[in-house]
Amino acid sequence: MSANVTKLVVMLEMQNAMNTKVHEQWFNQGFDWYRAIWVECAEMLDHYGWKWWKKQTPDTEQVILELVDIFHFGLSLRIDGETSYQALAQQLDTQLQQPHCGADFKQTLEQLAASAVADKTFNAEAFAGCMQQIDMSIDDLYRGYVGKNTLNFFRQDHGYKDGTYIKVWNGQEDNEHLVDVVKSLDTEHPDFAKNVYAGLVARYPS
User: Fold this and answer.
1) Which superkingdom is the protein from (predicted)?
2) Could you give the C-alpha distances from 6 to 11, 64, 113, in angstroms and in order?
């Protein structure tokens, strides 16, 4: 397998694990992942800026975070409980290497949203177009995805559902701690996700 396909397999496995933690038979529940995609697209557009009547500067970091969130939903749409992760990863890898771009980022994002609304699908080519237009690599996606997925697991394991989870520690939100942890680690390490989790555990108030 190519390095990209290997990363995509890891992300698919992690997405299934997270969804299963929320609901054991999640892919039989008919969750509306497509709706989550187009709602996130709208939120992202606010971070990018679209209002012609006022000065706006794209918040690229926040746009990247939103794209990572969309990828969670996109993977969830692709997992069907039957097709192997390797086959899904190879299909995604092919599509991500064929970016469809509109005239600008906003129009490409609208292609992604339109596919979600009209066809209830994850348009990986338009997603790749968005990545290309904000200079986001597959490694950036992998780093962001594994980090956010691991943080979601960490939150669940530390009382997120019952309200006992502490979101701000030592003056920083958990997302900020996550960024610091990820920066200190080797993303190519086979235990990258485990190491991210261990880094969060080491920082979390006991």
Assistant:
1) Bacteria
2) 9, 21, 27
More confident call, 27 vs 140 = 140
Which residue, 110, 136, 162, sits at the end of a domain?
136
Map residue 180 onto helix, strand or coil.
helix
DSSP characters over 124-145? HHHHHHHHHHTT--HHHHHHHH
Across the range 114-139, mean pLDDT stands at 95
Sign of CA dihedral 162, 163, 164, 168: positive
pTM for this predicted structure: 0.88
49 domain-assigned = yes
141 assigned to some structural domain? no
Q: Assess if residue 142 is contained within a domain.
A: no
One-letter amino acid of 7: K
Whether residues 161 and 93 fall in one domain: no
pLDDT digits (tens, 9 = 90+) for 13-26: 999 988 888 777 78
d(CA 36, CA 38): 6
Do 114 and 153 sit in the same domain of this protein? no
State whether 17 and 94 are in the same domain.
Answer: yes
Under 8 Å between Cβ of 111 and 123: yes
